[in-house]
User: Which sequence fits this backbone?
């Protein structure tokens, strides 16, 4: 597609990224991209931004990891709806310091897109004062799994083990290299196939854990008009992390789901090599409330970009 | 939908924007938005960013105009494909100086979305060092009109009168208030119905004029593998602007189209109260080349974010 772009430094940069992407980029070069959605499916769309100094700091990650992580975080939102990604659009704001590293960023974006079985449909590039990567993900699902379907009596499950990201971040913020859990921070994995398995198994609601288990449980509880009662001692924790640390850790991109019945966790774990743990239940209670036995409520606030 | 969001300053800001949007925002509050596309239609998607200091400067526009203009520019890309907008996603990067003006920005975004007959499906808000508004537009069309369909022998048409935006920008850059053509800069109008009329009338290719007639003609010529021959004297110019100024003026958001036959420009003008002007023709020539008789080729370079 590179010959279909006009001349100029901006298009040269885009051309280099397209060469790097190869057949991971399709249909680029028109005003808009064209996409077919499987008949009967609903379209599921989401947008997520990663901004330098807010979502990451340059010394913590390689340029490739920055690109990967930005795209993976966005893909996770569509995964949480139990949808299959059908394509992404990438809007880059590029500061002078990053101009020479665009191909590495593109490589990371390409890795995330490939890992999720989809392609780059198009994008936009602008000069900017800070690096920003805004990823729009388009997906489709016959029956998208919302946040709002939890009912009193449902069980609450979580995938993976939580807290590794928070532990890595604490080390990085203290100026030390992240040790045990660095990969959890640098290389999150959108749980696409896992979410579809859970939806097929009857899940009533789901959310991906981006703000922290406690905060995202509140979002799900608010959307469903229910209360969530979680046993702190049951939360699956990363090595060296306690329940409170696990409940506060954001950007995990694991799934929190509610289900009207017990799931076959052993089958899930065999198939995905990932724990699936029942951690509590849904009660009528106070709409939007979450109680985690053993963790003070005041310690559950999620990350708030505007509070800092 | 506002009750479905959790607590926190970030969500408070989103709630205030949702109140301002009213029924112009639908379905917000899940990980991703769900959308149906009319059966038989293809989905058309595009993303566009407006960044403070790059695409606008704060003193030139009100906060409402900044929001309107950002969304209108993005909607224009989908209009150029002769598609009907079906929804937008808004990703905001918000610097401290803009926190108190988010509702005004939201009002402008809402105006553009309403004017184009669509709604806000979702979005994302992050703290940032500079204001950025990244708009993803989803649309659909039975037969999207690409840039790549121009054939030798086609005629070249343009909507509207060009150069007003460049004239306004020259005044603003010189530190003077824009006089005659300020509205062309502050309040561009995506040509949605116009593009669909042109597609129905048999247009073979189209592009919206964002980089300038000369530069965008090159993009269309490159995508179609043809050369465009334009008569400078026929370019419809805004008051006080010459052909060169009109050919260089970007962010016009008028349409440049190619058509295999003469169009009924009088009917177009009666229906849309907008000029439709034949300005040249498509020739085999050199793929990607554009010649505008009376305007030196070297004066046709479009805006390049990375050349400055």
Assistant:
């Amino acid at each position: 597609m590179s010959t279909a772009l006009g001349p100029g430094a901006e298009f040269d940069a885009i051309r280099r990224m397209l060469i790097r992407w190869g057949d991971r980029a399709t249909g680029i070069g028109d005003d808009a991209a064209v996409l077919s959605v499987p008949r009967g499916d609903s379209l599921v769309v989401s947008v997520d931004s990663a901004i330098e100094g807010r979502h990451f700091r340059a010394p913590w990650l390689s340029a490739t990891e920055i690109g990967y992580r930005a795209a993976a975080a966005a893909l996770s939102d569509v995964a949480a709806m139990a949808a299959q990604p059908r394509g992404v659009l990438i809007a880059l704001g590029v500061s002078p310091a990053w101009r020479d590293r665009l191909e590495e960023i593109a490589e990371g974006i390409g890795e995330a897109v490939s890992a999720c079985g989809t392609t780059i449909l198009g994008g936009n590039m602008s000069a900017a004062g800070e690096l920003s990567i805004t990823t729009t993900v388009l997906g489709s699902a016959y029956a998208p799994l919302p946040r709002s379907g939890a009912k009193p009596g449902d069980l609450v499950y979580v995938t993976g083990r939580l807290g590794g990201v928070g532990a890595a971040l604490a080390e990085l913020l203290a100026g030390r290299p992240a040790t045990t859990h660095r990969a959890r921070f640098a290389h999150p994995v959108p749980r696409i196939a896992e979410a579809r398995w859970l939806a097929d198994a009857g899940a009533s609601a789901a959310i991906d854990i981006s703000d922290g288990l406690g905060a995202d449980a509140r979002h799900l509880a608010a959307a469903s008009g229910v209360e969530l009662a979680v046993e702190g001692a049951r939360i699956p924790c990363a090595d060296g992390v306690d329940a409170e640390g696990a409940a506060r850790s954001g950007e995990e991109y694991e799934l929190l789901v509610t289900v009207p019945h017990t799931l076959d966790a052993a089958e899930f774990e065999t198939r995905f090599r990932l724990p699936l743990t029942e951690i509590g239940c849904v009660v009528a209670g106070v709409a939007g409330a979450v109680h985690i036995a053993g963790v003070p409520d005041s310690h559950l606030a999620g990350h708030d970009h505007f509070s800092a």
Q: What stands out?
A: The radius of gyration of chain B is 20 Å. Residues 67 and 224 of chain B are 33 Å apart (CA to CA). The first strand of chain B starts at residue 33 and ends at 35.
